[in-house]
Design a protein that fits this description.
The chain contains 20 helices and no strands. By secondary structure, it is mainly α. It folds into 2 domains: about 230 residues, no CATH class; about 180 residues, no CATH class. It is globular, with a radius of gyration of 24 Å. Keywords: Membrane, Transmembrane, Transmembrane helix.
Amino acid sequence: MVLFRIPSTLTTTMANMPTTRRSVARVTGPPFSKKQRKELRKVFENSSWLLMDKISKLFPGILVLALLARHLGPRIFGIWNYTIAFSAIMGSVAILGMDKLAIKELMASETEQGRIVSTIALMRLIAALACMFLSILLVHLLDPDPVYLLCIIFSSFTMLFQSFDVMDAFYQVNNSLKTVIVPKVTVFLLFCALKCLAIFYGASLLTFLWLSLLELAVTYAWILGRYSLQFAPLSLKQVNFRMARRLLGESWVLIMANLLVVLFMKVDNILLNILSTPEELGNYVVAVRISELWNALPTVVSTAMLPMLFRKKQEDEQAYLQTLGRWLRASCLISLLLAAAISLSAGILIPLLYGTAYTTAAAILRIHIWSAIPVFLMMAMVQYFFIEGKYKLYLYGNMVSLALNIAINFLLIPHMGGKGAAIATVVAYFGVYIMMAVLDGSGKAWLLTREMIHPARIYADIIDFSHALRKSWNSYLFTNSHKSITNE
């Protein structure tokens, strides 16, 4: 199941925005000042780098995944992804909620940034080591097969290296995200090529485990080296233990929230391995990766829409709600068409990408792709809650939907395998969206949802869009024609 949460780009946007613009009070204020526009431009640059990181990894990642799945086979591929999911769940605890707190601390104390980075890095390193050993022990007790043990040993190193993601927060605050994005994307693409080469020469599972570990080591060595040259190297002398105790006291709620979200994302992988077979999990993973491929689209749109929505909220409440309504209707229509197209073509896509060993994945994909509808809708609705300061409602919705997801998985997986897990995913995502709409005390979320499927509203949007498109096209033709006449 794909993770659906408030993207880090939005957290960065909120952190970097002026306090006056973060207010959700219904006050009509003047247009953005020159300084505020400059800040928003920096925020948009940060978001653009984050999106570039996501998109540049997406398609090469799918290609390498398909080749790896073919090469390793459903069983080994399923076991590896099970240990990755297990590491992700434990890693959500090892982060200590510092992905959010780090930004807050770095912005509050600009003169103490070096001390903050060293302190948080040490805290996360200690937590990562504890979670690594616990992960290896638990997986070995649950599945004594040597392949499981080998995979979890390598997969758990992700927790160790992610301790240095505090650098991301540092560079976000200093509006220099490309410093970490460039090495991450460059090393990722390099190791995609190395993995393809290893597949060509028929390498074993151990080779790919080592390549994945080496990829992490090279990436973070580059980032840490750059940071050490630009600023001061990480040092125990800079660690502030009083700050560490204070941050731990503040972070326990965030730790629970991170754990909840990652459980929501990975619980189907864990339960499939326990209640079904590694082969079934392997089929499920390849189907989900195709389904998740399209979630980059609403992420890109939501990042671009956020500054505009903030401004509309301040200037004209009615225009703000109208824009949200149109966005929801467009998201519903696009995701519906996408789900129908992928569902109809799943029987062709799966054999083409993964081969005949993954034929079961086609039936899983036909079901799982329908989760795209609530995912597209939630991207718009989460923006509304974020602007209104009601993002806790998303957490409550996730709690209820996680319980629903686990219950359906336990009920269906023993009889339906990966198809049962896909059904649970679709129901759980729709559950999150419905819970968010129902829990909104103002009633606006529910009103927007009702208008989303209103035929007259949909028809008006189509007419408006066609007029705007025609106007843009005529303007383009006139401008080019005028240039041509002038040149002559």
